[in-house]
Amino acid sequence: MTIKPLHDKVVLKMVEAEEKTKSGLILTASAQEKPQYAEVVAAGPGGMVDGNMVEMTVKAGDKVITSKYSGTEVKIDGVDYTIVKVSDILAIVE
Fold this sequence. Notes:
Layout: E1 9-14, E2 37-43, E3 47-49, E4 52-54, E5 63-66, E6 72-76, E7 79-85, E8 89-93
Antiparallel strand pairs: 1-2, 1-7, 2-5, 3-4, 5-8, 6-7
């Protein structure tokens, strides 16, 4: 099954959270922060959204940083995805 986002939506696959600190301490699941780093799986076409023209600035394969608790989480074929608005993407990582 594939996900085809509409309008200004972007489908992201989140990168796994760090399980260790830089000093080597192992974090429990409850102590780990929600990841903000993700890979774009698919992006909608953009267009008119609420009377404003939205131009898509990301494409499939881009690595991005998102707002901390944004989006809707879904599981399809056993894989976790997050669907966000393009405005919830803060930066593209190169």
